[in-house]
TrEMBL record:
Protein's name according to its UniProt entry: diguanylate cyclase
Protein's UniProt keywords contain Cell cycle: no
InterPro entries: Diguanylate_Cyclase, GGDEF_dom, Nucleotide_cyclase, Rev_trsase/Diguanyl_cyclase
Protein EC: 2.7.7.65
Keywords: Membrane, Nucleotidyltransferase, Transferase, Transmembrane, Transmembrane helix
Catalytic activity of the protein: 2 GTP = 3',3'-c-di-GMP + 2 diphosphate
Keyword Nucleotidyltransferase among record annotations: yes
Amino acid sequence: MLLFIFLVNTPISYIKSNALSDIQIKVEKSEQLFSSNLNILQSYLNLAQTPLALNYAQDPEAFNTLASALMSGQTYLKSAVIQPVEQMSNLGMFVELIEGHNDHASLHRLTQPIYDDQTVVGELQLEIESHMFVSYLYDGMFIMSDTGFVHWSQYHDIISNAYLSDDYSEVLSQIHRINRRNGVIDLGRQTVVFQVTSDLLGEKTYLVHLVTNAEIVPTHIYVTFVLAVLLMVLTNVFIGTKRKKKALEQISYIDELSTLNNRHYLNHIESSLLKRDHYFIAIIDIDHFKRVNDSFGHAIGDKVIREVANTIKSSIRAHDYAFRLGGEEFAVVIKTKDIAVACNVVERVRISVEQQSNNPKVTISAGIAPVIRNIKDSLGVADQFLYVAKRSGRNQVRSVPKCC
């Protein structure tokens, strides 16, 4: 009997451990995407600090053109407008629900004051569609503040834009009790997996996945083991767990080293790129990168990759996309119908890298091609032009017609 209990409980514990590990990966990856979306929104709010916003009264068309470009590049930003100071609803950065109370598909308005020296002259207002902003959340997940206010919920019994009900107050109190950045909490019939993050106002926020123990280890698993089909079931579960882990590895669209989007995200947005306006794609490669690793070590090599990635992010436009394809190779998707515009964007990146004062100094080469049938073919054409740039002496951008 003891042996039978051991044979049942051991694989059950293994299954539970792996299932919880998978859920933790889901929470971690979802938090990364949530933080990434917040960073993008913050970059939009930073437009309030630009001359476009400050000079809006004299030249509204310049800001409105940029706002239209931003909204066409993603799905959750619905409007970006500037209000004069006499129409402002508050005097600071503010986030408010403006439509669809207790509805995860509601609209939220974010406001950022515009200052001329130290005088408020207006405010930038962004409206986002909450459902699209957190579309990557899994069933059973919700995002709440440190006070228990639920901002967004995909859990069937927890309401968005309201405080946690008494039925779930134990979730928040236990998270406060263990006081960690992430963790797993067993509440008896339910298990809480959480990760600390923050909202646009910098306040502590939790991304929570609430699951029942029956979801972690289904009852039929126990029945199957009691019927003594131990080895066969364990093998099947092991294979299934490995497959799920492999699938979960594809969830993240962020390259950890460079913090740029990765190839998975490029594949993810391919269909939307082909349906919309014309795009060009550029492959960017760090010249003589092997020498950097051989001379200075891989730690410095990683530092160079991060610096080049930061330069790419700061040099491209708000509605362009930047990716790390792997190693020292990057890609930039440029929204334009004009090859000259695409060349100017990539040439700006090349010059910025060349003028960096970091040590070791590096340069880049690039090839550009239009996005026509699919990303794979376009990358192949761009790679051919990159090869031409390398053969022609490096530190240059090539396309047809010739750039610059």
